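Field log, afternoon session.

UNIT: design team B
ACTIVITY: writing a sequence onto a fixed backbone
BACKBONE:
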């Protein structure tokens, strides 16, 4: 790989920005000064930026409404997860070095700006890329993987040899949850979307999988675990998800991330809990440890150049499995 040179004072960068909330047509490429770092931050040359539904929600202004209706200063740079190379380190940062390859979870920051050639990030939300992941995969990893692990570990407290059903198993979050649950020692059944979704979940090592659009999918679920499931992770909702809820054992546990629409409906005897991502450094370390234990794959449905960010947002409305990314380098 070509050595990445440090930017000089006054240098500009390309970034994806919006000037007002709205649809994908609001997205444009713009030049900005390369940002300066605070003492607890690092400057990163972005390699890959993940594209997720949370970016669309931010673009539409839904996060601003949720935070009391206060709008950001426009133009607003989008992007909440990425991979890249550290170029500069703040004075208070002790555990990184220039040249380190890292992934970034910018979700906890209201000023996340990772759809860009260069970006700053709080060092506490930066982690080294596991050796068995590429830079491309790492850029799509942080939010979905951390959210999946929070659900499996913090909320469901999944134990080895338990049986779990993952609904939405071929999606950006679900296909990572399948692999993490397997590495944690669970018996995993996935409800996927479409034949391509079933294929990817099978390849990722699930013990069983069914297409959620199959009219016989409930029978397939029952045949896999006639006595029911110990736990369930829902990454999408709807009628099929609510039918799946009935397959959980009495007093079983179920969880779903805040923000999925529609939300799964609780039934008597099931402990159903909504949750938000745990963004602590301890969770990042646990995630890396699990990824490094076994073969791990982040499925990239499609990559786009930075200049095609608007098209990536439009295509999120179509069927796909895994994640979209922007390749910046």
């Amino acid at each position: 790989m070509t050595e990445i040179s440090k930017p000089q004072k006054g240098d500009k960068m390309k970034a994806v920005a919006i000037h007002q909330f709205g649809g994908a047509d609001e997205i444009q490429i713009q030049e900005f000064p390369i940002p300066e770092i605070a003492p607890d931050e690092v400057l990163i040359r972005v390699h890959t930026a993940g594209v997720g539904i949370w970016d669309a929600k931010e673009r539409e202004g839904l996060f601003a409404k949720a935070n009391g209706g206060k709008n950001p200063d426009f133009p607003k740079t989008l992007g909440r997860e990425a991979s890249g190379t550290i170029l500069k380190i703040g004075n208070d940062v002790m555990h990184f070095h220039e040249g380190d390859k890292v992934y970034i979870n910018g979700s906890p920051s209201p000023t996340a700006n990772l759809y860009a050639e260069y970006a700053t990030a709080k060092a506490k939300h930066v982690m080294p890329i596991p050796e068995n992941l590429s830079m491309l995969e790492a850029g799509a990893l942080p939010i979905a993987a951390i959210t999946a692990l929070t659900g499996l570990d913090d909320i469901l407290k999944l134990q080895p040899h338990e049986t779990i059903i993952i609904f939405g198993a071929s999606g950006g979050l679900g296909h990572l949850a399948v692999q993490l649950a397997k590495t944690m020692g669970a018996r995993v059944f996935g409800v996927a979307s479409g034949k391509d979704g079933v294929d990817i979940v099978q390849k990722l090592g699930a013990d069983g999988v069914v297409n959620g659009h199959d009219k016989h999918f409930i029978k397939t679920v029952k045949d896999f675990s006639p006595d029911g499931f110990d736990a369930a992770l829902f990454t999408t909702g709807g009628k099929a998800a609510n039918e799946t809820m009935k397959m959980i054992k009495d007093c079983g546990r179920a969880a779903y991330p805040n923000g999925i629409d529609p939300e799964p409906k609780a039934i008597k005897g099931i402990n159903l809990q909504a949750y938000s991502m745990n963004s602590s450094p301890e969770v990042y370390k646990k995630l890396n440890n699990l990824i490094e234990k076994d073969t791990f794959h982040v499925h990239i449905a499609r990559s786009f150049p930075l200049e095609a960010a608007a098209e990536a947002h439009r295509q999120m409305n179509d069927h796909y499995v895994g994640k979209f990314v922007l390749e910046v380098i």
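LOG NOTE: The mean pLDDT is 95.
NEXT ACTIVITY: expression trials, pending approval
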